[in-house]
Amino acid sequence: MKIKGFGINADALQEDDQGKKKLDLNGLARNLDHFTDMDFEFVEIPLHRLREISEGSFSPSYIEKIRRILSGFPFKYTVHGPDPLNIKNKENISSQRENLIKSLEFAHALDSEILVFHPGKFAAFKILDSSGKRRLEFTRRNVEKMLALEREMLYSAAKKAEKLGITIAIENTQPYVDRSPYSYSELLSLLRIQVDTLNHPNIGITLDVGHAFLSANFYGFNFLEEIAKTIPYIRHAHIHDNLGKVGKTSEKGGAKLMAQGYGDLHLPMGFGKIPVDEVLSLLQNCPCVILHEIHNGTKECAKEALKLTKGIMSEVA
Length: 317
Fold this sequence. Notes:
It contains 10 helices and 10 strands. It is an alpha/beta fold. The protein has one domain: Divalent-metal-dependent TIM barrel enzymes (TIM Barrel).
């Protein structure tokens, strides 16, 4: 089976002249209008970059407002669940389960067949206190309990996803030099084990190529071999480029990070060091959307990146 098509991410987060970010649905419409001339078939809508998303709550009027905007464009849509979704303990799981169910309902309202899910984190975002000592220590038993909690929540949500015709696609995460290991999903091998253990037809993997490249450089595994092993699990793919230089948690985003070339840069494919030809050759028969997940500051290069990836796909087909 061939890929379903190519896509790009769009959201309502806009930057004003002073560099301040604000949420603006008119900006979402302008983004979509900009992409209509670029030959993308899909657009991904990230819930954490839209308004009125708190505790999994989406007002019907707001959903309808978004639907009206999206229906004015010739795209099919995929949905990215909120970044803050996370499993840490039993006290947290009930609200997270509700967020996941509400995210599925939102995806269904947009006729999306995919909901991208960020898997559990095993530590607070900052794991060092002011003296440089670790605040949290996690034993293997702690981690196994958290994995089991996540499976419990995902399996329950997968039953609803099956009724709605949606696949929950768990995304592999990036490493940080001052934080890792913080999630099993930094390693594709462990993510495959979690999906195998869940063993549900409506749960698969979102392969994030940029994250995998950073992890391969950080942990020393073979980048292309791990992607090849993951192919049977992939239901969605995020492609973006970087230089393979793992950054710190304090270096997320920003012009300084871009200038120094560290971290998860979300550059258009072909602008970094990822072997794009080999990656796309591996993905050519995946039944998934190849989604260009690139930062707003580089979206002017999206057309060039799409031309590159389509050209490679036609050559390897």
